[in-house]
Model the fold of this input.
Amino acid sequence: MPYLIALDEGTTSARTVLYNERGERLAMESRPIDSVYPHPGWVEQDPMQIWSAQMESARAVLDRTGIPASAAAGIGITNQRETTIVWDRATGKPVSPAIVWQCRRTAETCAKLAASHGAMITAKTGLVVDAYFSGSKIHWILENIPSARERARNGDLLFGNVDTWLIWKLTNGAVHVTDPSNASRTMLFNIETGGWDDDLLSLLDVPRSMLPRVVSSSSFIAHAASEHLGADVPVTGIAGDQQAALFGQACFRPGLSKNTYGTGCFCLLHTGATRPVSRNRMLATRAAQVDGPQFAMEGAVFIAGAAVQWLRDKMGLIAQASESEAIASSVSGNAGVYLVPAFVGLGAPHWDPAARGTITGITAGATSAHIVRATLESIAYQTREILEAMESDSGERLAELRVDGGATANNFLMQFQADILGARIVRPADVETTALGAAYLAGLAAGVWKSTAELESFWRSQRVFEPAMSEQERDRLWEGWNTAVRKCRA
Done:
């Protein structure tokens, strides 16, 4: 029986998942990734810890199951997108910490770029100009790390998002590649032509020699060196985490959408071979590519599950994330309390890097339970903002939303999401669809599966949440949220 190994490197952990030929999860192991906040709005990680955590989780899965790496037909890699790593071509040593996607250090640079070249950048990339994306992060490293600019011009430095870094390490530096789904998040990639864009490279002063070769998301890429996992397993799949989740949710056709509830919240609507155009500042991005270019419309919430983590680690209001469901349900409503978790600004549709986290509506009757409830509700409100923008762009009303990610285990959140949307929420049997999508991409290229139609037959729902809130109550709560957002942005 062939197996698939999915390496799922996220913002807070590196996970490895083992799947069989029916797409069933057999085992999963996870190792934490630390983030460092050296200045307000800055977020960094250690590239070497990212690598070691990913390998530790992979070896742990193989040890736990007793299945040798040689039995794997392929490795699929999915990753936190936009997180930027620059390293020395010869030594493999990173020149600086990884700059994480949430980091806002380049916000001022991006504001200037938006004022002078915003329309051109959006036309070529499908993105709004924002510190979220990799291009300005590369520019910052080259400008601020001693001798980095000169070394880059001499061809001595390489850039990669986490997918590129992991593949480079797995192949002992033999392969420097990425796929369209990750490349389209750099602000350097032309999503129409499918290649690195000379105008964008010149604008951000990024040498072409730093950039990885772009390959299909589902294809033979290279063999992992046997010293890492015990066998030279082929790497046959790559996709950014959100595009991988779209694939894992079997959203292969235009009109299908999913929302992933992780550190942030990311809603993608598949648009097929047609590049989407948004009037509401949604992003156009490349979806995972199997047979020719595929596109998706995307809305990004920067802080979702990370807000629950903040309740636990910074505020001490919960001991573990799973407690939030019972605590939120212990009060009958939010008592007028709203929390806008703009810890690193607001993402879509606002794209406001200056916004900061705000709690409004606190009275003497408010309790810690109301703050916990408001935190969970904020995830659902932010998701509604994105979906309303997408509905406006598409002209179609959302009937149901497929959801995935760790926070979907929270039944309070899922029911409130259905209520505030007035739409059905469908939770799949396997909510780890990011890893599943990477395995699907790898398995298709390895010949384990013949077509996406076969994969579609594997998808199963576990629970459906139907809206139960009155329209009057929905409108009242929504008005309160919008008031809180205005105060946050002020």
User: Anything to note?
Assistant: The mean pLDDT is 93. The two ends are 59 Å apart (CA to CA). The longest strand covers residues 25-32.
